[in-house]
Amino acid sequence: MLRQFFQELTIATRGRGLHEFTRDVERWIDGNQFKHGLLTLHLRHTSASLLIQENADPDVQRDLEAFFRRLVPDGDPLFRHTTEGEDDMPAHVRTALTTVNVSLPIRDGRLALGAWQGIYVWEHRTRPHMRRVAMHFVGE
Amino acid sequence: MLRQFFQELTIATRGRGLHEFTRDVERWIDGNQFKHGLLTLHLRHTSASLLIQENADPDVQRDLEAFFRRLVPDGDPLFRHTTEGEDDMPAHVRTALTTVNVSLPIRDGRLALGAWQGIYVWEHRTRPHMRRVAMHFVGE
Amino acid sequence: MLRQFFQELTIATRGRGLHEFTRDVERWIDGNQFKHGLLTLHLRHTSASLLIQENADPDVQRDLEAFFRRLVPDGDPLFRHTTEGEDDMPAHVRTALTTVNVSLPIRDGRLALGAWQGIYVWEHRTRPHMRRVAMHFVGE
């Protein structure tokens, strides 16, 4: 008999960069003893992303950030939407270039992540923010 | 008791740019009185995207479009696939850089969108097109 | 009565480029006679992507690859993470710019793909790899 569950996580970012929260997701799974099913995460913001990436070498996170900073420069004169500063519109572009959705099967109580995959909030604003992630589980 | 529902939307775009259709999705949810569940949208095309982005300041949409036009220039001599014109291959690249899938929890009859998030078809071809979005709901 | 099923596919890539596996997915659907439901695919790697793209003209795949190779050059001095070679960090960036998740409705036993859409593993490393895709189906 399939059932569904909802939860919302709040992630405190420390400003621009990747913030892993795989453990918070696993805690929800373990706490409810989800065994088999499908997990969906949705980030409720337009200037940060959800990302599944390498969680072994911290240089990967540093290099991802460096590449995106060069690809979408702060203060680019192309942009008109500068209400909240030079990093405002680049944050929207970086979100469009990545994603705000993640869908993961859960089997035997474990996320179907690869050996080196972690789940991140990628903060694109330079200042710290509180980021909300809606979580949904359907399964048994 | 969980149930599932299907529907297909057709969105008439007015050529390149973002076309919000959050209301059309909400109309389907309200019309069927979906209460709690998971909504999945899939765009059945390879030269347009689904995007969740800011729906407050229209400059954000204008700037997103301006950035992608500069990043993936029409008529780039790099491209061989030019059957349908200078905007043909750039449209495929822009689709690859974004996504054609969206997954959203629905709770108490409301999409788990953030305060500033809207759901868009991003038309990447210069001419208007009819774009089909497959919708699936599982829940109660 | 909704039920769920799991499976894992292994795709042998021939090195950098797009590798279609729509048929493998359809074989799983047909073999289990899934009629209506939701299919989720998750690629368990951080240096390859899942992509839904055109499967008619092979030049589209060639041009996508050419664009990404230019956008994220191998051996870029910006990158520190070079443990596995010049294509290592570019592969992570290319994965971040695309996605590792795909969600597709299935209706009357058929994937809701558009007429020209195929499902690909996009290998970003220059050498061939074995890539694992976790599949989940919920439906009837």
Describe this structure in words.
- The structure is a homotrimer of 140-residue chains.
- With 140 residues, the first copy, chain A, is an alpha+beta fold.
- Helices cover 24% and strands 39% of the residues of chain A.
- Chain A has helices at residues 22-31, 58-71, 88-97, and strands spanning 3-12, 17-20, 37-43, 48-54, 101-107, 110-111, 117-123, 130-139.
- Chain A has a five-stranded antiparallel sheet with strand order 1-8-3-5-6, covered by helices on one side. In chain A, strands 2-7-4 form a three-stranded antiparallel sheet.
- The longest helix of chain A has 14 residues, at 58-71.
- Chain A is elongated and about 55 Å long.
- The N and C termini of chain A lie close together (7 Å).
- The model of chain A has no long low-confidence stretch (mean pLDDT 97).
- The interface between A and B is large, with 34 and 37 residues.
Protein chain pair with the most extensive contact, residues per chain? A-B, 34 and 37 residues
Helix coverage percent of chain A:
10-25%
Q: Which H/E pattern describes the elements of chain A? A: EEHEEHHEEEE
- Classification by helices and strands of chain A: alpha+beta
Number of helices of chain A: 3
**Which stretches of chain A are poorly predicted, pLDDT < 50 over at least 5 residues?**
none
What is the count of β-strands of chain A? 8
**Main pleated-sheet profile of chain A:** 5 strands, antiparallel
Radius of gyration of chain A: 16 Å
| Integer average pLDDT of chain A | 97
Task: Describe the oligomeric state of these chains in a short phrase.
Answer: homotrimer
Amino- and carboxy-terminal Cα gap of chain A:
7 Å
How large is the share of residues in beta strands of chain A?
35-45%
Shape of chain A: elongated
If strands are numbered along the chain, what order do they take across the biggest sheet of chain A?
1-8-3-5-6
